[in-house]
Specification:
single chain, alpha/beta, 8-stranded mixed sheet, 17 helices, disordered N terminus
């Protein structure tokens, strides 16, 4: 992946074949334990089976006592997660937690001093967004002779290829056909495109993205100001259709909190940052050093963020916004979120195959937070469903079995966890939405507990998929949004 590769369309068949092989399982061949090609290594599978067997036996022999112990453990997990979330939020309130580059500073860099830049745009079965992609890439204020935009399309995706041809690609956007092969994942396509990248900085955009036109220039300035150990600059993500319906409002509020406060809080705490799937700007030399993306991981961005941290590098968060399309359809949303949860668990399992090595690389706090985020987030969402069922049973009939699970010392700690946790979380959403200047997010923020029910459904589905088909990339459909609301933020992050 080093040196100046041939221009798109002039590579030899041998080069393409080697690039495809490396894109699929390059990481798995170089370091099998760092890849999610196998979901569970033997000792992890054994531990999981032993835990399930011991839990089942305990429930059969002493059901009430066993459930009480499980309740205590889950309550402690809830409290630890909430305390850490509030800590990250408080750190994210500090303005210095996020890198800011003004328009004037971004435009002050002479074109001659700008480095070559490569944009990878993986797309599959998305003919409806090709025209928007070309417009968004053409709007970027970066010299054309230093900008390489590769539209990565599967070679058998005839409908998107035809749409790209009809749209009339200009000299900035080039189509690179990825040979059809399993796994059909975004990281495989990005790895393939990386072999043809000519930029010193490489970034990923989704086909429907609308990035801030000055984002690339801001990244260049940010890298020049930051220490040499910074390998990635992650831009913020928001949605142009946040007021389309209640679901898109929940989704937008969720992102406002994550990218506005929690992610900067992670940066401030020097913890590993699970990258977003788009608008992460990476130094090309570091991508090669850490092994690029794992073609079998369905949240390749989160995995890459952890490997960046484990390799001694860090990630910064940039105050520049890329607008995306929020999922407006509940079934489509569950498909997407279940894949995210599945990939979070994949990533945690991969990096905990060698726990001592991860502990040394990330440190005790980093390992703790990595576990809370990547394992705790989906597992907590799963457990929520069980506790909501218990709460419903209590309210409807107060059965004695439920009462036995909550002796006073558990009852009061659980009550504190529920009240403080829910109020604090809704408050954080309200702050994030207020600071984003989007008044239409008030109702979604106040009704966020309904969104958590959907998260639980998605988490249960993601766990099931991890067991049945761990590297299956569940397609998210785009082009479902209504026209942008007048309250939607612009690409620079400000409301219109």
């Amino acid at each position: 992946m080093s040196g100046a590769p041939p221009r798109v369309g002039t590579e030899t068949p041998e080069f393409r074949a080697a690039a495809l092989a490396d894109a699929i399982d390059g990481l798995a061949r170089r370091d099998p334990l760092s890849s999610a090609a196998v979901a569970f290594v033997p000792w992890q599978r054994t531990v999981l089976l032993v835990v399930v067997a011991v839990t089942a036996a305990a429930l059969a022999l002493a059901p009430v006592a066993s459930l009480t112990v499980i309740t205590v453990v889950c309550t402690m997990g809830y409290l630890a997660t909430m305390a850490d979330r509030i800590l990250l939020f408080s750190r994210g309130l500090d303005a210095s937690a996020i890198v800011t580059v003004s328009d004037e500073d971004a435009l002050a860099v002479p074109d001659a001093d700008l480095p070559p830049y490569t944009i990878l745009v993986p797309a599959y079965d998305e003919p409806e967004v090709v025209g928007d992609l070309i417009a968004a890439m053409s709007a970027l204020q970066y010299p054309a002779d230093k900008l390489q935009v590769l539209l990565l399309l599967e070679e058998d995706d005839d409908v998107t290829i035809d749409a790209a041809r009809r749209a009339g690609l200009n000299e900035v956007v080039e189509v690179l056909l990825v040979p059809a092969a399993d796994p059909r994942t975004k990281p495989k396509a990005c790895n393939y495109g990386l072999h043809f990248a000519t930029g010193d900085i490489v970034t990923i955009y989704d086909a429907e993205d609308q990035p801030d036109p000055l984002q690339l220039r801001r990244v260049v300035v940010a890298f020049s100001r930051l220490p040499s150990t910074v390998a990635c600059v992650q831009a913020k993500l928001a949605f142009h259709n946040g007021s389309q319906n209640l679901l898109t409002g929940w989704f937008t509020a969720d992102y406002a909190l994550w990218f506005g406060y929690l992610l900067p809080g992670l940066m401030k705490s020097r913890s590993p940052i699970p990258l977003g799937g788009t608008s992460n700007h990476l130094r090309a030399d570091v991508i090669a050093e850490v092994g690029a993306w794992d073609g079998f991981n369905v949240t390749e961005d989160a995995d890459l963020g952890v490997r960046i941290a484990a390799s001694g590098f860090s990630t910064a968060v940039l105050d520049s916004t890329t607008l995306e399309e929020a999922n407006s359809d509940p079934i489509n949303w569950v498909r997407q979120r279940s894949r995210w949860y599945q990939g979070y668990l994949q990533t945690w399992l991969v990096h905990m195959r060698r726990p001592a090595r991860t502990w040394r690389a990330l440190g005790p706090v980093g390992t703790y937070r990595f576990t809370l985020l990547l394992a705790g987030t989906p597992l907590t969402a799963c457990v929520n469903m069980a506790f909501w069922s218990l709460s419903a049973a209590w309210l409807l009939g107060q059965p004695s079995t439920v009462a036995a699970l909550f002796p006073p010392y558990i009852y009061y700690s659980s009550l504190v966890s529920m009240i403080v946790g829910n109020v604090a979380t809704v408050y954080m959403y309200l702050v994030a939405c207020r600071e984003s200047g989007n008044a239409s997010l008030l109702v979604p923020s106040l009704t966020m507990p309904l969104y958590w029910v959907m998260m639980s459904v998605a988490a249960l589905k993601g766990c099931w998929q991890l067991l049945r088909n761990p590297s299956y990339w569940e397609k998210t459909f785009h082009g479902l949004s209504a026209p942008a609301s007048p309250t939607a933020p612009t690409a620079d992050g400000n409301p219109t």
